[in-house]
Write a structure and sequence with these properties.
The complex is a heterodimer of chains A (about 180) and B (about 325). Helix content of chain A is about 30%, strand content about 15%. In chain A, strand 2 and strand 3 form a beta hairpin. The longest helix of chain A has 19 residues. The radius of gyration of chain A is 29 Å and the shape is elongated. Helix content of chain B is about 10%, strand content about 55%. In chain B, a hairpin with a 3-residue loop joins strand 20 and strand 21. In chain B, helix 1 packs antiparallel against helix 2. The radius of gyration of chain B is 28 Å and the shape is elongated. The chains are: A alpha+beta (about 180), B mainly beta (about 325). The interface between A and B is large, with 35 and 41 residues. Chain A: It comes from Coregonus suidteri.
């Protein structure tokens, strides 16, 4: 056997580069999934609804409140179900707190519609049904965006807004820490 | 010396000896166009002829010398004037004198070192070229011929997989795995993403290949990021315990080998970027560098001879001896 053939044979036997194999694209091994994990409730359940607008008060002191209902299985929320009522200015307060304290880019709120509060309008101004519905939808969108944000979930102000009976604007801002 | 002639009084061109047999490779020019150039590897000889053709056969051409150079240089776009030559070879073809007729000169640059791969990027260009020059008192006549150089590597001895657990505390934990850390340009990335904790609402997941070109040193360092590929690997919301496979064929993408600190002037590195996007379009990502290398094409001898020789090593029987003879006859016949 001449030297070149000997080299080829040696390479073939050792399965060296001359063999030019097709790449192995078989899947990497993974553990089979636990059936409870596969079919049980997911760990990211979070539902927030803004509904039931109610206008309270008389004359100039009238304002509208919205019901905020929350259902979740996230451990960071103290209550797995909560129901509170909030008005627009409470949302404005929450947005301000988050902008100042967290690194979150806070989404915008539906408009303040100051022009609707001017006199001599043909409609009910800020108590107009279609306006309230528009605002309700915008507030719901805002809350869903914010409450699902991992960084916003660390802020005390968010939990107070969503689950405490009332918003205490004299609170001390702080971060939620989990054990 | 004629002030009134149109253009130059002579034409110069360079022809390679192996122009018929040498392979050409496609290479992007600075303005994005793709052209084909002769392909060379490190250590190969560059040889050919320089043809000097006189435009007016009756007229003599006075010159200060004729030479040919082989140059490898790096050009930074923000510093165009300065060419950093890392290879510079010259062969004198003719001493100062005059040409009475068109003439051809042979040249050979033997076993030229070509340490780096040709590269045309966003802020930097590395190129190799031959330059033939007829020196004259007022203006030289010269011609450049670009070539492309590829750097080849062999299979790395050590090629560990990349396996890491990353996430956001109490929110999202994943373990990602890629089967290798060094991939050749026609390789396949095989991997998986395993979800350990999912408390956010994921909408889909993709893997991007990012090329980062770095030029400059010290305070003035420029990074140019370019997303070469975006490949969706998952559509939908995963839960704990789910494993998402990755299979990404690299041959379909235009990439170069990883280049680290080339002549201390620039680097080209590649990263895999794993991106998870949630229902509110928030993006969670993890970037991981991979090394890309260029594999040489293998030249194969006839399969029948090889297979028979291989069989003979283990069997050594009379029948395989005759089979080998038969194969050898077929090959030569």
């Amino acid at each position: 056997m001449d030297p070149n053939d000997r080299a080829i044979a040696a390479n073939l036997a050792s399965g060296g580069e001359m063999a030019d194999t097709i790449a192995d694209t078989r899947r990497l091994f993974s553990k089979p999934q636990n059936l409870n994990d596969a079919y049980g409730p997911p760990s990211n359940f979070l539902e927030i609804d803004v509904s039931n607008p109610e206008t309270v008060g008389v004359g100039r002191t009238r304002f509208t409140t919205y019901e905020i209902r929350l259902k979740t299985n996230l451990p960071i929320f103290k209550l797995k179900e909560s129901r509170v009522r909030r008005r627009y200015s409470d949302f404005e307060w929450l947005r301000g707190e988050l902008e100042r304290d967290s690194k979150v880019v806070v989404p915008p709120l539906p408009g303040k519609a100051l022009f609707r509060q001017l006199p001599f309008r043909g409609d009910d101004g800020i108590f107009d049904d279609s306006f309230i519905e528009e605002r309700r939808a915008g507030l719901e969108q805002f809350l869903n965006k914010v409450a699902g944000h991992p960084l916003a979930q660390n802020e005390r102000c968010l939990h107070m807004f969503l689950q405490d009976e009332s918003v205490d604007k004299t609170y001390t801002p702080s971060k939620i820490r989990q054990a | 010396m004629s002030f009134f002639s149109f253009g130059q009084s002579a034409e110069i061109d360079v022809v390679l000896t192996d122009a018929e047999t040498r392979k050409k490779a496609e290479h992007k020019t600075e303005d994005g166009k793709k052209d084909k150039y002769f392909l060379f590897y490190d250590g190969e000889t560059v040889a050919g002829k320089v043809n000097v053709t006189l435009k007016n056969p009756g007229k003599r051409l006075e010159h200060q010398g004729i030479k040919i150079e082989f140059v490898g240089q790096i050009e930074l776009y923000y510093d165009r004037g300065n060419h950093h030559e890392f290879v510079s070879l010259v062969k004198d073809l003719a001493r100062p004198g005059e040409l009475t007729q068109s003439q051809t000169f042979d040249f050979e640059f033997t076993h030229v070192e070509k340490p780096y791969e040709s590269y045309t990027g966003q802020n930097v260009k590395l190129r190799y070229f031959l330059r033939a020059t007829v020196s004259r008192r007022l203006n030289d006549i010269s011609k450049e011929m670009d070539i492309v150089v590829h750097t080849l590597s062999t299979y790395p001895e050590l090629n560990s997989s990349i396996k890491m657990e990353v996430g956001i505390e109490d929110c999202l934990h994943i373990e990602f795995e890629y089967n290798k850390s060094k991939y050749h340009l026609k390789d396949v990335i095989v991997g998986k993403i395993y979800f350990l904790l999912v408390r956010i609402k994921i909408k889909h997941m993709e893997i991007d290949i990012i090329k980062r070109e770095t030029t400059g040193t010290g305070p003035s360092v420029y990074h140019e990021n370019d997303t070469i590929a975006k490949y969706e690997i998952m559509d939908g919301a995963p839960v704990r315990g789910e494993s998402i496979p990755i299979r990404l064929f690299l041959a379909g993408y235009e990439m170069t080998p990883t280049m680290r600190d080339i002549n201390k002037k620039f680097s080209v590195r590649y990263y895999l970027n794993l991106v998870l996007i949630d229902e509110e379009e928030r993006r969670y990502f993890k970037q991981q560098e991979i090394t890309l290398w260029r594999k040489g094409d293998v030249v194969r001898k006839s399969m029948s001879t090889q297979a028979t020789i291989g069989a003979q090593r283990f069997e050594g029987s009379a029948s395989s001896e005759s089979a080998l003879e038969k194969a050898a006859r077929e090959d030569s016949g």
